[in-house]
Amino acid sequence: MSGLPENLKYANSHEWAHLEDDNVVRVGITGFAQEQLGDLVYIELPELGRKIKAQEQCAVVESVKTASDIFSPVAGEIVAVNLALADTPEQVNSDPYGAWLFCVKADDLSGLESLMDANAYQTMIEQ
């Protein structure tokens, strides 16, 4: 797999994170993750306003093969969810880096420092 966006950070658990304005972090799953899961059929998104801790499970994606927990890379409050995915979860399969799942208004951005850049993530998934 190649073509990982260089402007994103990547978690060991296969989420990507993008820092936006006002300490908002947009989160989705990687192309590698959606390939491993197969065709997504359902996505359970977190509730708006929910307070979460870094590395806390806050969403679930289900495919024809399995279900997988999604973790937040940072602590904060859920300020947006991609409601379009409720009706069309397959958007994640066709555009994993465009079909974000949720946004967190981060209390602290230090969680992003522990994430990998594109090169480190590529090395991890190749092992």
Any overview of this molecule?
With 127 residues, the protein is α+β, with helices and mostly antiparallel strands. The chain has a single domain, classed as OB fold (Dihydrolipoamide Acetyltransferase, E2P). Helix content is 22%, strand content 34%. The protein contains 5 helices and 9 strands, in the order βββαβββββααβαα. The strands form 2 sheets. A 6-stranded antiparallel beta sheet has the order 1-2-3-9-8-5. A hairpin with a 4-residue loop joins strand 1 and strand 2. The two termini are 12 Å apart. The relative contact order is 0.26. The model has no long low-confidence stretch (mean pLDDT 95).
List keywords for this structure.
about 20% helix; alpha+beta; six-stranded antiparallel beta sheet; OB fold (Dihydrolipoamide Acetyltransferase, E2P)
Topology:
Blueprint: E1 9-10, E2 15-19, E3 24-29, H1 31-37, E4 40-44, E5 51-52, E6 57-63, E7 67-71, E8 76-81, H2 84-87, H3 91-94, E9 102-106, H4 110-113, H5 118-126
Antiparallel strand pairs: 1-2, 2-3, 3-9, 4-6, 5-8, 6-7, 8-9
